[in-house]
Structures are given as C-alpha cells and as structure tokens.
Write a structure and sequence with these properties.
single chain; about 120 residues; mainly alpha; HD-Zip_IV; Homeobox-leucine zipper protein PROTODERMAL FACTOR 2-like
Length: about 120
C-alpha cells in the first residue's frame, strides 16, 4: 500500500469538498420555487438552472453581468461584445435535473453506490 507524502493535505481538501457537496445537496432537497419549478408537460419538478447557478456556482464576472442585463429586461444591444476581449466560445454541455419525493428503503452507502453507478443506470 502506497502512502502519499501530501495525504493529509489531500484528505483535508476531499473532506472540505465532501462537506460542501453534502450541504449543497441538503439545501437543494429542502428548497422549492424558484430553485425547483413544476413542469406541467412532464408532471414533475425540474431544476431552474439559472437559479441554481445564482445560488451555488461561483460565476465569472462576465457571466454575472450577462445574467444581470438579461434579468433586468435588457436586450442584445445592451450586452457587451465579448469577442473583443478575447473570450473563447465554449460549447455548453447538456444537463438535466429533476426530483421526485418518496421513501427509499436502503442504507446510505448502498444508496450512494446506486446513484454513482453510471453503467447500471444507462443499461436498459
């Protein structure tokens, strides 16, 4: 078994990230609108990504300014020209989040393993 020289440093970072992630999950579970909105077409709640990013993501100032202009009713003419500042075009990734409320009969470790098992999740 090998031991990293910086094991304690890594352990502290991992513990910090784990705590932050569990706190974010706790807040998301307890929140309702505007974080979660009911999708009438699909009959369940979906995540409002704009609200999620506002609460949980540390956005760069450029994106925050764009969101501010859009939410204040500004049009495309009011948006700054980002091409002049050398910003790269980043292809957005596709993501989806929804939730359903119910009781799960499982221990916490099995539940986490089930949620992290991507292979079983996508197999028909």
């Amino acid at each position: 078994m090998s031991v990293s020289v910086c094991a304690e440093t890594h352990k502290a970072k991992i513990m910090g990230q784990s705590f932050a992630a569990s706190e974010e999950l706790r807040q998301m579970v307890q929140e309702r609108e505007p974080l979660w909105v009911f999708d009438v077409d699909r009959s369940f709640e979906v995540l409002n990504f704009l609200e999620y990013n506002r609460r949980f993501s540390s956005l760069d100032p450029t994106l925050e300014e764009m969101i501010r202009v859009i939410t204040m009713g500004g049009g495309p003419a009011e948006l700054p020209n980002f091409n002049e500042s050398g910003c790269r075009h980043v292809q957005p990734c596709e993501s989806e989040a929804s939730r359903e409320i119910g009781i799960v009969s499982s221990n916490p470790i099995s539940l986490v393993n089930m949620l992290m098992d991507v292979v079983s999740f996508y197999d028909p």
